[in-house]
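Note to self: the last two entries modelled the partners one at a time, which told us nothing about the interface. This time every component goes in together.
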Amino acid sequence: MREFDHGVRLGRLAVALFTLGAALGIAGPVAASRPGIPEHVPVCLTRPPIRATADPRMPRVHTRDRVDATGSLTGFDVRIGHRAAFRLGPTGFIDGPFGGTAVVGERRDTETSLSLVDLWRGCSRRTITVRGLVYGSHLDDSGYLHVSLVEPGTRRELGVWRIDPELPERPRLEVSPPVGDAATARPRSGSVGWDGGPVGRWCAADRCEERRPGQVLPAILAEPDGGSAAPALVSPRPVPEEAAPRWPRDADKTYRWHGTEMPPSWIRPAINAAADDVDQTNRARTPVFRYDAAATDTIRYTSSMPSTTCSSAIACASYVIGESWTVRIRPHGYDFRWGALRWCQADDRDGCFDIERVMLHELGHIVGLDHPESGGFSLRAFDTVMHELAPAKPKAGSALHAFGPCDVATLQERYDVPAPTTTISACNDLTTTLGLIASGTSVTRSARVTLVAELRIPDRDAYGRLGGNALAGRSVQLWRRPVGATSTAWSVYTMRAGDSPGTYLLSFQPSLSYEFQAVFAAPGSEGLRDSSSPLVTIRVIDGCGVITCANGTEDPME
Amino acid sequence: MNSTHPQHKDGHARAWRTLLVVAALGAATTLPTAAAAADPTPPEGAMLSGPTGVRAGVPLGDPAAPADAATIPPFDTFGRDPVLSVFTRADEGWASWRIEAVPAADIAASPVSLATGVAEVPLESIDLAAPAPGDWLLTAVLVAGAGGTSGTWAWHLVIPDRSLPAAMPAPDLVLFGGGETVVTERGSGCYLGTCGDIGQVPPAETLPLVRLDRPDEPVALTLSDGSSIASVHVTATLLGVDEAAPVTVLSVDRLATSVVLVPSPGAGRWLLDVTVQFSDGRGDQTGYARVSVPGS
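The predicted structure of the combined assembly is written out below.
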């Protein structure tokens, strides 16, 4: 079934409507319910051949979000150099440029309008309306348009179609998805490749073809070397950290709302709350974030993402250590291939994302936290806020407003703890060392002897800035037994805090010779291991025998 | 004493598919600095930061003996006028520094000074003046603050004569199997200081498909720009089975390779979740694809 509409109602160029319905089994008649041309796109009066070659002088395409008073995305303002400016709705998009042409589209209820915009002249050469939702288009060197279609409503893939813009009523199905298994092809626009030039990439159902000069497909250079057991995923573990330099400890990172991509009022309290979450839950000397209208770093509410890394992102964090940082938040209502993005602060139904939780994740990136999955860790919902997929409501952890213990473990290693008494995150697993010295090891009876224990984290590279730290405020015991007694005869005392961090002491007036050992039994709430000191023997020169005068006066002294 | 913090093995440990195969490009793995270059967490030595990542310096035991650039893996900045800095993770920082470059092909030539100085308060990071495009041997004589480790470190720096793009493009994860190549669907990831977080994995039926020819055929994983991989973690989840648990197909760290062979998860239709850490601390990326494996 096909239908044509040459767009005479618009008095513009031909607007061709065709349908893929019959071929794809989409129910319902085909109709051009509306003109389908993005607002205010000027129409070219003539149509010279499409310029296939990019030119550095070619006008650049600038887009800017439009959001309403509630912060919902209402569309995009598009400007092509100084040649044209027009508006797209909230489901509008621009692919390309392909040579001197960009594909400007807008998805509507059941159809997508596509305009081939001549960037040199800033006008639309041709507009086509396609039944189905287009997510991705590519204009090849021969002038054919390839579109990847999604079925309205179900979001089922409908395959990839090739359209001749001069003959749009005859689309050709390039990748036909099998029944129940949609097409996988994704035409992609040209991008700046590794060689500094444009790289065209075209992916069909089971292969990709790239026009990348000199690109050689990888060869399998080695055969399997036999089986060995894959290591088990282990949880919990500190999340990996970025290898980049660190921000200074306790740095004061201020931010403001971006001037033209300003987060709406309903989202700002959640962003500020996330900044507070960093401050209150990091238990490290992590940079802290606070709003300051005079700040240079910004929070942006925008669909303009800076790189391919963020092309499908709901939020994106960028930073240059020592210089600047920014977080971009995709506007409410943005139309992803999987559906519309909903922030819970605007629409608190299942499937929404909590902006405070997502923002805390982005600030985690800024201070150097990576995704745990990149280290092979499979952490539980409340171990971290850095999962590579933010949980949507009502999944576990979807409203987690604090760094998880595995985030804290990494931050403590990266930035150190604020005080020797700070609890080491239970997600870590650090060894401890315990030393013990006595003020004298050979004394007369009833002379005062002070034993000093020192509890530390050993100085190892793997422990980052926690290495070598003293551990204060812990419970360290002193075990004592008469020299020569059996191991079951220990008396146990609790040492009191010494004058310097990490030291613990106790004094005695022994009347007989004793062996002492300091013992640290790590609490289950901390990521520390137990440790014990070497034995220290204090001999009393004129000491009693065990039978003759040992008595209660041997108790520790204050 | 026992640890108070037992390591819990999670459900993924039940992976029945335990074959682990890594094909490493030989040259890279035999170089002495390959492991350090692949380690995403730099040691407390001297690190060189540039537009294409972070590279550990090769410590020189005898500063008077010149390093041989041919034995040091090149660190390619991609373009001219790169922003370069030498930094350390050690708290002591650098109290004084002298950083020079000589042409790699002529190390007897007069050195070009890139940075020299003394700091009253030791610095963690020192900015360098980038040398002109070319192939350079960089040497840094660094004196640490009190208690730190002083020494001399070297890098083989390659500066191509072309412009740097405004943003370095992150490579795609490319799978090769059944005689065909697919690019995985991009998930969350970080690349050179930019992190993107997706909201959902697209519906499985929309993901690129690898059709293997044999039940035991591995899938080759590479990056689209041919750069090196530092770690790979791959899980597979059976499609069409309610609440199927993912199984670990591959989990390897500390690589320095551009090709990894991922073992077949076995007969069936699977969703592959591939997470890669890029070499030189460039970041990480998750990619998604389907794989269809025939029965025996």
